[in-house]
Amino acid sequence: MRLRGKGGASGRGGEPGDALVEVRVRPHQQFKRAGDDITFELPIAIDEAVIGARVEVPTISGRVQLTIPKGTSSGRVFRLKGKGVRNSATGNTGDQLVTVHIVLPDKIDDELSYFLSEWRLKHRYNPGRSS
Fold first, then answer.
1. How far is CA 98 from CA 27, 33, 50, 66, 80, in A?
2. What are phi and psi of 43, to 5 degrees?
3. Of the candidates 53, 37, 49, 24, which has an alpha carbon nearest to the alpha carbon of residue 101?
């Protein structure tokens, strides 16, 4: 970035020169920028995906509540309108795009395992595979 006339004074009494400023932006740990939009990866539990939930989601301007509908699959993207970056040139504000990922517990207990085994016997559901 060049700041005209904001540099050091000339050695011989002339006009000040230009200041050259280099700006480096480090990536954020949670948020990524895509134009004026912000993207965010949200881990959710299996029960939140199956029966739905209200979860708190961080944004660049604070936390908001997001409703996860019943039957939400991993990879679904939710749009938080106006929660992105304000574009000073256009005056428009981008959105925050929240992608959910179902994360299973580290340890699957016998109750969950039994329930899903019984469910599978009654429901032949194989997404992406022919029956």
1. 17, 12, 18, 9, 8
2. -75, 135
3. 49
* pLDDT, tens digit (0-9, with 9 covering 90-100), for 9-68: 877 777 888 889 998 878 888 999 999 999 999 999 999 999 999 999 999 999 999 999
Residue-range domains of the chain with CATH: 29-122 (2.60.260.20)
Number of Cα atoms under 13 Å in the Cβ half of residue 80: 24
The 10s digit of each residue's pLDDT in 92-104 is: 999 999 999 999 9
Six token digits for residue 92? 């428009």
Across the chain, the runs of DSSP E, i.e. the strands, are 2-3, 19-20, 31-34, 37-44, 53-59, 62-68, 77-80, 96-102
CA dist 51 and 22 (Å) reads 50
Task: Identify the pLDDT of residue 130.
Answer: 62
Q: Does residue 124 have a pLDDT over 90?
A: no
